[in-house]
Amino acid sequence: MSVVERQLHIEEGTKIPCRTCKWEIADPTNPDQGQCTVNRTGAGAVWKRWVRDVHGMTCARHEEGKLSFRDHV
Amino acid sequence: MATVAEALEYRGKSIEFPLEYPEENDIPDEELHEHLARPSTERTKKLKARCRWKHASAGEFVEKGVTSGIQRMRFITEAHRASDGKPEVIRRALGLANILNKYTLVLQQDEFIIGYHAEDPNMFPLYPELAYMAVADYLISDYAPQPVDEATEIMEYWKPYSMQGKCEGYFDPEDLMRMYQVSTMEAPGFATGYNSVVPPYETVLEDGLLKRIEMAEANIKKAKEAMAETPWDATKGLKWIDKIDNWEAMVIADKAVIAWARRHARLAKIVAENFETDPKRKEELLEISEINHRVPAEPCKGLKDAFQAKWYVFMVCHAIDRYASGFAQTEDAMLFPYYKASVIEKAFQPMTHADAIEWVEMERLKISEHGAGKSRAYREIFPGSNDLFILTVGGTKADGSDACNEMTDAILEATRNIRTTEPSILFRYSKIGREKTKRLVFGCIRDGLGYPSIKHEEIALEQLKYYSQFSKEGNGATDEETHSWANVLCMSPGLTGRRKTQKTRSEGGGSIFPAKILEVALNDGYDWSYADMQLGPKTGKSENLKTFEELWEAFKVQYQYATSLVIRCKDVMRHFEGRYLQMPFVSSIDDGCMELGRDACELSEQPNGWHNPITTVVAANSMVAIKKLIYDDKKYTMGQLMDALKANWEGHEEMHKDFKNAPKWGNDDEYADTIIKDFYEDIIGGEMRRITNYSGGPVLPVGQAVGLYMEIGSRTGPTPDGRFGGEAADDGGISPYMGTDHKGPTAVLRSVSKVQKNQKANLLNQRLSVPIMRSKHGFAIWHAYMDTWHDLNIDHVQFNVVSTAEMKAAQKEPERHQDLIVRVAGFSARFVDIPTYGQNTIIARNEQQFGAEDLEYLNVNL
Question: Whole-angstrom Cα distance, residue B715 to residue B718?
Fold first, then answer.
């Protein structure tokens, strides 16, 4: 797996966009953008990354689903 | 068994700390809060048990079945389409009238204060005329209004007419993208719809709306006569046109509100006469019908009238005409005349003090059930609460005497009884305030409600006098009027009363985030840790900042860029609010708008500009660590620091230890406090006050974190104070970073008291020992602490009194801890409704003990 695949990247026509990923939650303002929450420390911190385009971006850590509010920030 | 504080030697005596209520000895620490609620009647017990809470966390509603309604957006759109060509202010009034005339009414079992702001008590309305992005977010959520196709069509219709559509064109798209992320700056109100208002409730209670209609009609008549004077003078005559439109709109709005209340009256009567089988409830429904027919049309005569009239005003101003958070009012002063009529004189709606308490409990449950159609950002940043609702009590009267009265006590007693997270309470602390009321304030705090939060009476009075000199209308607050102050939202004092109150959040509110700004300043304006884009001006790579002063200047430039931009957003929105988002109902109940024929959004008599720096202490502690370890001691270079930060300290463990152990705020440490005082006074306040806002006054900082210390923490990489990437930031406005205040509660007070210049308010969160506060000495220690806090001229303080054992137990079994309440920042929340990330930040706060040195400093007599 390449470094690019592991990281958030644009992939036109992706079947696994961030929008459907359990680690993604919507951007606070613009619903076409989002926040990736996959980076979590053992101590419980969540280090978010901004998702510029939730429909066209993806990465190798994509997992379908939705987390409970308890697992977000 | 309950934990009891250990005895200590103090002034030559051994002081024991037995619990004030011995029966609590048998209650385990892990479940204390579940034993503290005591609704005063069966009715409020039932209402609490079936309360339809609408707490939000991480953007989601915690309770099942909560969703947005379609009716408000449907009816306002219908009216907007039908009123094309009419003056905009008339269109706004017709929009409100169409909603109220067609809204489904809600009348619920057991309630005495009736009315709801959506078609179903599990719903909340949406506001397509504000921000299309906020509606778009709901449309793709589990809370979408039904039918979605209709809601989508409505959203599309409003895009060009919405505040967002009107304002966006006046900004660089790159700046908008930076703001919408909410990392260095809060998104502008035109993109979120977030707002707050202080309704002039008093005019409705004292005059009634029929009188306000008469006043507006008389003004129209006079205006038309003035226009007809000869010889015609256009320089004067044309000015009447807008005024006439405003007064006409006020009449339309007030008539609609009266008709809406009277529809409720008719419904209650129909239910009583045709469906209710319980004779007692039937009698109540007939009384409800009588009250709702009379108010808010006529002046209130008793306490029941006042609660109901106030509720209608709240619903229209905060939820139906447009969305606005808050519950700002000086409730005890406002209600006391009606308390006197009903409880003391028994002249109208006679009742006992205990009955008055039940009414307060009922009102608190109405607020608890209120649903806010706020955007996602605001469903994230007040985790565990519905919205921000803060009322104010206490303080001093215009003659300088104690303002506490029996209504103050009823509010506090009810609050302690019913145990809800909303509405929060602010207590105006003056040393002349009576002890009886202060004991009730303490009772709420000791029971862990996290409120009343406390503000310094005299600081607030002086502040409002200061702002009044900048009034563009030459009509700022008089000294007498300043005594009506209440917190507009969590922290900032503003006027209440018949005129000059804050009408829109463009005056005050909104946030800016120094921790993230520092991160950006260290990276030439670039955000490497969250958005991967340029977030501010290019101020140079940190490796090239040769002196601490150069770093200070780089931060200042970044901060001024962000601050000016966010205030510009608010003022541009205010410009358009006055033209397209007028509030004729609010105008009709404001004496200034009524007298001058001007709209509430446009008219500003009392400047009160503020903005909220949040995460200041992370930035300030970072500045201290950099100065000490890089510029003073020269133990590390800036390059080494940047490498360590980029690696999230991994592989730089020794260095991390040094930066983490650098002097921190809150320990009365001369080195740290000198730098941090300057940081607050010269940059955070000093730079902000250089700005002049819509109202003609300066903008001052109100440091207070709400839940944004979590959100911004998660969007900020590692910082030089030793924080790891993604960890929460500081939880107050001037509170020490969690767990870094090691010198006890009085050292915190001494540090905080050093910051005085260029501040409007700063939130101080403190967590106090449960065994000490629940001991027989609890009140004496707290009271001495408060008097010392007052003497040190500190603006604010609020307390968590909750044990780690109970919070940890609630994390394991949330269903068994529904009554566990904690103070987050400017609001309280049910602990179990907060995400685990946030819960851990409350647990991590230092639980302050009181040692002999602290007691000596406070001069406590035990």
Answer: 10
Minimum-distance CB partner of A73 among B62, B377, B835: B835
Min distance A1 CA to chain B CA atoms (Å):
22
CATH of domain A1-73: 4.10.490.20
Q: How far is CA B645 from CA B522, B523, B605, in A?
A: 10, 11, 48
Of B57, B377, B837, the CB nearest to A29: B377
**pLDDT for the residue numbered A4:** 67
Render pLDDT for B467-524 as a digit per residue (tens, 0 to 9): 999 999 999 999 999 999 999 999 999 999 999 999 999 888 899 999 999 999 999 9
Min distance B834 CA to chain A CA atoms (Å) = 7
Task: Determine the Cα–Cα distance for residues B17 and B526; give it in Å rounded to an integer.
Answer: 54
The single residue listed with the structure tokens 């053992």 is A42
Is this structure's pTM higher than 0.90? yes
ipTM of the complex: 0.96
Residue A5's pLDDT band, with cuts at 50, 70 and 90, is: confident
Suggest the residue from B837, B841, B843 to mutate for an interface test with chain A (most A CBs closer than 10 A).
Answer: B837
**B192 contacts A41? CB cut-off 8 A:** no
**Nearest to B391, CA basis, from B356, B415, B359, B369:** B415
Residue of A nearest to B715 (CA): A48
Residue to mutate among B55, B66, B133, with most A CBs inside 10 A, is: B133
Nearest to A26 among B137, B191, B717 (CB): B137
pLDDT, position B608: 97
A27 touches chain B (CB under 8 A): yes
Q: Where are the domains of chain A?
A: 1-73
Phi, psi of A70 (to 5 degrees): -65, -25
Residues 6+ apart with CB under 8 A from B366: B111, B113, B311
Domains recognised in chain B with CATH numbers: 1-65+327-371+381-482+767-862 (3.20.70.20), 509-571+607-763 (no CATH)
